[in-house]
Amino acid sequence: MSLCNRVPSTCPGKGRGRQVIAVARTADVVIMMLDATKGEVQRSLLEKELESVGIRLNKHKPNIYFKPKKGGGISFNSTVTLTQCSEKLVQLILHEYKIFNAEVLFREDCSPDEFIDVIVGNRVYMPCLYVYNKIDQISMEEVDRLARKPNSVVISCGMKLNLDYLLEMLWEYLALTCIYTKKRGQRPDFTDAIILRKGASVEHVCHRIHRSLASQFKYALVWGTSTKYSPQRVGLTHTMEHEDVIQIVKK
C-alpha cells in the first residue's frame, strides 16, 4: 500500500495523518522512497513519524522476559552484563507505569527505550528498505555514499537505473520463494510460478494448489537446490528452496 499522500506533522494527528501512517503496522516490509537531492531530512522525518505509531525499523524485538504479577514486588535478573540499564533504573521505569509487582529478565544488553517498548507491548518490528531516487541529479561521490548506507538502494526511475537490483532486494526483504510445478511426462511450467514464504514445505505447496491435495498426497519428486540429487522423492515435510521444481503424485 502506498502512503504517498503523507500529511506533514502527522504525529499530532493533523488530517488523520496518524491513522494513515499507522497502516504500515500491517505491512511485511516498509519501502521508504526518498529524494536523493534533499539529503537526510525526509528520512529522519519519516522515521520519527513511524516511531510515534509504534513501528521499529530494522530492529529485532528486545530479548527481555517481562511478566506482571499480583504480588511479591519486582524480581530483576540478567544473564548478560548490562551497560545501559540497572536494577534501580528498571524499577523507576516500572513505577512510572504504575507497575509494582513484576518479573524481569534481561537476556541481552538493552537500552531503557527498548525496555519501555517491552512494557508497552504494542510495538511492531519490521524490515525497512530505503530507496533513494533521482541519483542522476547528484554527484557520483554522493551516490556512492548513499549506496553504502545499510539497508539502502539507489535508483533513478526517470533513467531506469538500478531497478533490477531494487527488485532483487524487495524479493530478499519479503523472504519469498518461487516454486515451479511439473506434470508427469512434461516440461516444468516456468511461466506460472507458486510464490510462498521462505521455509515453505511441500505441504504448503499442496495447499496453495488445492486445499484437498495434501490429503491425497502420496509423494513428490523435487528438482533443485533443496535436494541431494535430482529428482529426489520427498514427503510433505520437505522444505522447498527458491526456484525448485516439484511434481506431485497422488494416491
From TrEMBL:
<dbReference type="InterPro" id="IPR004095">
    <property type="entry name" value="TGS"/>
</dbReference>
<dbReference type="InterPro" id="IPR031167">
    <property type="entry name" value="G_OBG"/>
</dbReference>
<feature type="domain" description="OBG-type G">
    <location>
        <begin position="1"/>
        <end position="175"/>
    </location>
</feature>
<dbReference type="GO" id="GO:0003924">
    <property type="term" value="F:GTPase activity"/>
</dbReference>
<dbReference type="InterPro" id="IPR012675">
    <property type="entry name" value="Beta-grasp_dom_sf"/>
</dbReference>
<feature type="domain" description="TGS">
    <location>
        <begin position="175"/>
        <end position="250"/>
    </location>
</feature>
<keyword id="KW-0547">Nucleotide-binding</keyword>
<dbReference type="InterPro" id="IPR027417">
    <property type="entry name" value="P-loop_NTPase"/>
</dbReference>
<dbReference type="GO" id="GO:0005525">
    <property type="term" value="F:GTP binding"/>
</dbReference>
<dbReference type="InterPro" id="IPR012676">
    <property type="entry name" value="TGS-like"/>
</dbReference>
<protein>
    <submittedName>
        <fullName>Developmentally-regulated gtp-binding</fullName>
    </submittedName>
</protein>
<dbReference type="InterPro" id="IPR031662">
    <property type="entry name" value="GTP-binding_2"/>
</dbReference>
<dbReference type="Pfam" id="PF02824">
    <property type="entry name" value="TGS"/>
</dbReference>
<dbReference type="InterPro" id="IPR045001">
    <property type="entry name" value="DRG"/>
</dbReference>
<keyword id="KW-0342">GTP-binding</keyword>
<dbReference type="Pfam" id="PF16897">
    <property type="entry name" value="MMR_HSR1_Xtn"/>
</dbReference>
